[in-house]
Known about the structure:
- There is one protein chain.
- The protein has helices at 2-9, 16-28, 31-47, 64-67, 82-91, 118-126, 141-154, 179-187; strands at 49-50, 57-58, 72-79, 96-100, 132-135, 160-163.
- By secondary structure, it is α/β, with parallel strands linked by helices.
- The protein has three domains: 2-47, RecR Domain 1 (Helicase, Ruva Protein, domain 3, Orthogonal Bundle); 71-163, 3-Layer(aba) Sandwich (Dna Topoisomerase Vi A Subunit, Chain: A, domain 2); 166-196, no CATH class.
- The strands form two sheets. A four-stranded parallel sheet has the order 4-3-5-6. The protein has a two-stranded antiparallel ribbon with strand order 1-2.
Amino acid sequence: MEKAVNEFAKLPGIGVKTAMRLVLHLLRQDVQSVESFGEALITLKKEVKYCSVCHNISDTDVCGICSDMQRDRSVVCVVENIQDVMAIENTHQYRGVYHVLGGVISPMDGVGPSDLQIQSLVERVQNGGIQEIILALSPTMEGDTTNFYIYRKLEGCGIRISMIARGVAQNDELQYTDEVTLGRSIVNRIAFTGQI
């Protein structure tokens, strides 16, 4: 039991108490349910891989998004992780392809540019066919540092480099908005056309 608790506690966000609750829950289940759970994890690890083009998860060498002929391959949205791909896909507003970096530059955490999928992004651009890179990284110090690094690596490649809009979210009150977000909203203001 101690070994099982220790293994669960290795998962991100799972402490020893939560690990103990999970182990006790599994002990209350029938053998078939626990075997099914274990097999699902083993199958996940054996069959799910990373797309050779964008580094998204896939059960094939090239993911479904990269192989979809209806997607616009000239526009690449650069994201930090796979969860960001899922979030953007859930909006149903984007029809380009992605490039998953696998994190952001963070010297405090020992993550440098070589630890991320930045060079493969540069190679994708150099191979041609890409007209725009959309930087869709979180508006943090690390995200901004990574955006700047990518910009410097790609400037002069003859492509458009843009980033997702930043500012005050709809239905947010200004008094609760942090100063950086509010400042960016004012600096990057847009013309009011009379339409909401």
